[in-house]
Amino acid sequence: MRAQMEFMFQAVRQAGSYMPMHAHSCCELVYYGMGGGTTRILSDTHAYAPGTYAVMAAGMLHDERRLADTEVVCVGFRLDEAGGALREGLHEDGPGRPVEKLLRAMLQEMQEQRPYYPDKLNYLFGLIVIEHKRTAGVAAPQEADSHLQYARAFIDEHYNEKITVEELAAMSGYSYHHFRHLFKRKYGRSPIAYLLNRRIQRASHLLRHSALSVAAIAEACGFSSDAQFSTLFKREQGVSPRLYRRQVNRIPEGRP
Which CATH architecture has domain 3-136? Predict the structure, then answer.
């Protein structure tokens, strides 16, 4: 996600003043540091107070009626496609007001204008977007995929060790059944079936390209015994490990 700031300013608006309905070509965040009043976003009217902020999408009509002297910090911004949608409307800042602290840091950057300050402004506003999404409960659809990718990568790296679905589910932050469902939907097979396939693939490679015994290959690939390896290998490949080795290496019958 990349945030691009378009404009930023801080101002104090007098009690009784009014900003008519208007919209911007970019998204806007308006933070209320002090004061009170109302803001109408499309057809919904919200009462703002210190520590709240409004978020409007590009082209979204909104107004502001100040019932008390009001300090605002306004930021116009754009997000790349990976940034996803924001939750528009009026929101409360989180505990300790993290959004306000980041906005104050942005204002200081604008005043000091040290080297690379435009990059720093975009970086700080990117953190604000993250804080907003967390506080507003905006879903992160790609996170599920990332967690599943971590689990699959773990299987790929540790296939020769003892791995349980419970451990993979805990690692991914899901319940046992939810993890199994998500994993199978994404990869077309259950976690255990994926693990077995990974072990069989590695065992097949060793049978083709090494002189290791079947028992040694069984141990190297994470099977509990030679017998278990032979049973599962034959079920998946249609032949026993020994016959598979003979066939792929074209070893005549009777030779060891």
Answer: Sandwich (2.60)
